[in-house]
Amino acid sequence: MKPIIYQLLPRLFTNYNETRRHGGSMQENGCGTLNAITPKALHAIHDLGATHVWYTGVIRHATAQYNTSSIVKGLAGSPYAITDYYDVHPDLCEDKRRRMKEFTDLVERTHKADMGVIIDFVPNHVSREYHSTAHPRGVVDLGANDNPDWAFSPLNNFYYMPGQKFAPYFDIKGYEEYPARATGNDCFVATPSVNDWYETVKLNYGVFYQGGGEKQFDPIPDTWHKMLHILLFWAGKQVDGFRCDMAEMVPREFWAWAIEQVKKEYPNILFIAEVYNPHLYRDYLAAGFDYLYDKVGMYDYLRGVTSKNWAAEGITMQWQSVDDIRDRMLYFLENHDEQRIASGFFCGRGMCAEPAMIVAATLGTNPVMVYAGQELGEKGMDAEGFSGMDGRTTIFDYWGVKSLQAWANHGKFDGANLDEEQRNLRTFYRQLLRVARSEKAITMGDMYDLTYAQTEGFNKHEQYTFIRKYKKQTLLVILNFDDRQVDVQVRIPREAFEHLQLESQSEAKAKDLLTGMEYTFPLTPHTPICMTLPAWKGVMLKIKG
């Protein structure tokens, strides 16, 4: 199965409050809940093409309501500053006393909708105000048995600066920490800056960073045991996978040890790693990860092509650079860290990235991810509060997302309030993702990149083409990244016919799986296929016979 992941923040996804006050409280701006992600909502997500839902921000994290506001980013706080690994965030629940039940009910609803559940596992850092009140009996809290007089010990869960007070270069009224602990982004000083992950503390996996990176893994560090227990705890809630935040900042030795044990008990559970260093890709896959982010390769390049900075033909180099692991790279064009496609910082309209999205969804058998609102052309151009107008949808503030509200229509999930461009874009995503989920030429077939073989009648800076084949199913993809309509000529070289065992046809018939339009053209090594492509569009031609 080709995983198609739909990422959403429950805090935003089902928030129908339209106040949208800058820096507004939960009471003013509202907050989505887990219960509001109804069977109707899940049916709509599955109908879009999703096989999995990534629920971002489920585990309890620091907020101004429950923690010291000066050490929390925004009133709603970062979902990646965990305060209790064993708890569900209370803001997301209608009955806070039954919040774990509301989460497990959501898991059950998602499974009934024929989709898997992915949640975040945040292994590198926790909130500075971490304190578990929901942990199972017998579990010792992180840091409870630490000796803060030791700057480093594999027995400690945190790193310390003995004799130094936590004193960042900005005001933190109401929060004191002595001795200071290392900050989550490997900042080993007592004075982090506002650009550091100052609201978090680094977890200690037995790597002595101040001592040149020496690894002390024998005996197994205490943090390893605690984090394995957390993974098994959530796996026991029937989740189907973990998106592991900043996995490369945690030693791969831990991952190899922990993933093996989790998969012994839950063999089908997925582990997805956020890794940005290509030199580490194969090490982390060898450690047991199923998939890795392809951010610095395919994401960055597709963004560059869509933004008119790079040539489309360079896409070839991106997949070739990881060809041996290509089926394990997760493609995406948006997530909570990246700027929205339709923002003024990217390309201004969601439809401009349609050819890039076709590449992401169909070039390989590997997974693809869509961020809630992407399929609606969400612009992310609000200054929500802590999050300024940066082209991203806030993860730090209470907010109502206009496009999601228009689609949800107060829980009807019928898209009644979408404008024409939003409806057309969602129709495109729905058709594309459903095809990517179901067509065997995409989910199981071979890919042959045709772009290198194109000559006259094909602009390699603006167009891209490839063919996919599984048994007798053949799919020809031709893409136009240009902002104007173009006439193209596509040649399929003889070596492609031989490699894919294609049969020549003087009059091949084909259907565009995106629009339903029928085409007839010669399918031979000698004759080019002539096609007219609108601006920012592509065709996916399923060839009959």
Based on the model shown, name its key terms.
TIM Barrel; 545 residues; 24 strands; 20% strand; Immunoglobulin-like; 8-stranded parallel beta barrel; 24% helix; 6-stranded antiparallel β-sheet
List the helices and strands and how they pair.
Layout: E1 4-8, H1 10-13, H2 26-29, H3 39-48, E2 52-55, E3 59-61, E4 82-88, H4 99-112, E5 116-121, E6 125-127, E7 160-161, E8 180-181, E9 200-202, E10 207-208, E11 214-215, H5 222-235, E12 241-244, H6 252-265, E13 270-273, H7 281-286, E14 291-293, H8 295-306, H9 315-320, E15 329-332, H10 354-362, E16 368-371, H11 402-408, H12 420-438, H13 440-443, E17 446-449, E18 463-470, E19 473-480, E20 486-490, H14 494-500, E21 505-512, E22 518-523, E23 529-533, E24 538-543
Parallel strand pairs: 1-2, 1-16, 2-5, 5-12, 12-13, 13-14, 14-15, 15-16
Antiparallel strand pairs: 3-4, 6-9, 7-8, 10-11, 17-18, 18-19, 19-24, 20-23, 21-22, 21-24
